[in-house]
Amino acid sequence: MINHNNKALVLFSGGQDSTTCLAWALETYEKVETISFYYGQRHDIELTSRLSVLNSIRSSFPKWDKKLGADHLIEVDFIKNFFNTALTNDLVIENTNDMPNTFVPGRNLLFFTIAAAFGYKSDFNVIVGGMSETDFSGYPDCRDSTIKSQQVTLTLGLEKNIILETPLMWKNKSQVWDFAKNIGGDALIEIIVKYTHTCYIGNHYDFHSWGYGCGDCPACVLRKNGWENWINVE
Q1: Residue set of the binding site for Zn(2+)
Q2: How many helical (H) and strand (E) elements, i.e. helices and strands, does the chain have?
Q3: Tens of pLDDT along 60-86?
Q4: Quick check: pTM over 0.85?
Q5: pLDDT tens digits, residue range 3-36?
Q6: Cβ–Cβ < 8 Å for 153, 115
Q7: What residues are designated binding site for ATP?
Q8: Which residues are annotated as a binding site?
Q9: Does domain 7-193 have CATH number 3.30.450.20?
Q10: What are φ and ψ of residue 93, in 5° steps?
Q11: Which residues of the chain carry a pLDDT beneath 70?
Q12: Residue ranges per structural domain of the chain
């Protein structure tokens, strides 16, 4: 599929992966906007962090600032009422029936659907997401096959050529750090370390070489190990 309007809408949470995807989109497309979701998270630190990330990107990369448009926050907190998960409730993170209880069923599918519908009126036919099959928690809606299937469904359902881009799909966390460095150099790495938030439990006061976080939850472990592996190779 060929993109003719050179515009992209980025699913943006304020975390490491979505920030890296935003940088990639700003290098790839001429006009970029971001869309974020409040889905009843157990903390709002990511949503707050995303504003710091956006401001830092604008000030550190003037060429990206010219391309970066509006940020949209969509409330879909009704899904919190459907499930009892560790991302929406104060629960101990654990695996249950081979699926971690951090899985929010249908979350990514809903995000892509809303983003495609939201972008319809403004002719944003490219939606960028930070899903990965290489380093992920077993979520079925992060799989490449799932994303490709949804792309077909959205294209048919909207009668419009919808493209779902997942530039991190086959990268582990070490490769994500390297990918970010290749896109935006040390300045982007500094933004990711200082301003993004990934920790599941919302720890944004313990600072490490790889950024803020508890250091123990699955998201922190992936980020920390990826950083250490990348630094050792560097």
Answers
A1: 199, 214, 217, 220
A2: 7, 9
A3: 999 999 999 999 999 887 777 777 665
A4: yes
A5: 457 999 999 999 999 999 999 999 999 999 999 9
A6: no
A7: 12-22
A8: 12-22, 199, 214, 217, 220
A9: no
A10: -75, 125
A11: 1-4, 40, 42, 84-97, 101-102, 104, 135-137, 234
A12: 7-193
